[in-house]
Amino acid sequence: MRPVNLIPAEDRRGDQAPLRTGPLAYILMGTLVGLLVGVALLVLTGNEISERKDEVTTLKREDAAASAQAARLVSYAQFRALSEQRVATVQSLADSRFDWERVLRELSLVLPGDVSLTELSASGAGGEGAEGSEGGGAGFAVTGPSLTLNGCADGYAGVAGFVTALKDIDGVTRVGVQSTEETAESSGSGESECGGGSATVQFTLVVAFDAAPVPTPEGEAEAPVEAAPEAAQAASSETSESSGGEAEGG
What we know:
By secondary structure, the chain is of the alpha+beta class. 50% of the residues lie in helices and 16% in strands. The chain has helices at 23-96, 100-110, 155-166, 217-221, 227-249, and strands spanning 115-123, 127-128, 141-142, 146-154, 174-182, 200-208. The strands form two sheets. Strands 1-4-6-5 form a four-stranded antiparallel sheet. It has a two-stranded antiparallel sheet with strand order 2-3. The radius of gyration is 50 Å and the shape is rod-shaped.
């Protein structure tokens, strides 16, 4: 005979119990999976945030170290800038120094025998030039060093010859005739500076060296280092005074 289980199916246990299926089991399983994924994402995000914070801390530490090193080296940068400015100032003064000794030596070589100088003055910077020029017209402005010569010549031909001779001096760009005046024959106490020549002409000439470099105080005053321009201006003034004194003495 075949045994028959008379227990209702919903009350059976063991292997013979029927499987219970329904949406509740799937909802529960999905919730558990979602919670697991959320916890994993939370852990990963927390780890990434921690790594970013550590990286920011490291970068801040490196930035502080770099700033401290830059602060220690700033004095060297300032010293280098000061050194470069002083070298540039000295170079500018050396380039703008005019060789008056050479000019006066060449002047003594080209001076004609029938011309005598009574006064000589020199200027190291540009300024107003002669009232007249070698063309006999308007005056000109001198943009470089210049010589002003007062003297006497044997007639107007002597003055013209002297003007031509002055152009042979190295660096001369123009020679301007400021004034000429014929003097009468000297007699008694009325003797002129030119002596006793009957055809003597007194003249004033301006010799311009426009191509020669001159100092630029304005550019030196705008330099970033304050000490160097002051020293340059003082040295430039001393150089100009010394050059002018040598020229007048010559």
